[in-house]
Specification:
Blueprint lengths: L2 H20 L18 H18 L12 H4 L16 H21 L20 H26 L6
Helix pairs in contact: 1-4, 1-5, 2-4, 2-5
Length: about 160
């Protein structure tokens, strides 16, 4: 199996895990925090979408997905304590933007020259992903990190185990 195939599988699988965890969680439940001090899923989903678009820009993909005008600001790390549902978007908006962003990442991976995987990432993200190839892996890893928090919320809500 080629490296691109492995990265593609990881991106698809992490997207599937997130989609599956969200299927039976209501819009209102997405504003609940899995544990004290953690972020609610709406903020987490927005953060994932903004971050993955940032990673795509670092890979040279311009405007991968058009986000609502105030989307990035609402999901900035300084807004992670906001519990006002009116300041966030609907579950459908998050699901749509997450899917579009992930499709853009998969398209970028498909078009990316594997000879560039070893090139250094921009300094701003080098600590998390030292190379451009690592950036693709980070998109998957980051999704799974946050999916774990949503799994905890599922348990808190008494939802069934789905994966």
């Amino acid at each position: 199996m080629e490296l691109k195939d492995q990265l593609k599988h990881a991106l698809q699988m992490s997207g599937h895990v997130m989609k599956t965890y969200l299927e039976d969680i209501s819009d209102d439940e997405l504003m609940l925090r899995p544990a004290e001090g953690s972020n609610h899923p709406k903020w987490q989903l927005g953060h994932l979408i903004v971050a993955e678009n940032f990673f795509l820009a670092a890979l040279g993909v311009e405007k991968a997905v058009e986000l609502p005008a105030d989307f990035a600001e609402k999901h900035d790390k300084t807004k992670d304590k906001n519990d006002s549902a009116a300041d966030f978007f609907s579950k459908e908006v998050y699901q749509d933007l997450f899917q579009k962003t992930r499709m853009a990442t998969l398209a970028a991976l498909e078009a990316f020259d594997v000879a560039r995987f070893g090139e250094s990432s921009p300094d701003s993200i080098k600590m998390l992903a030292p190379t451009l190839g690592n950036l693709f892996g980070l998109c998957s890893d980051h999704t799974l990190m946050h999916a774990g928090q949503i799994a905890v919320l599922r348990r808190k809500l008494g939802k069934p185990v789905v994966i």
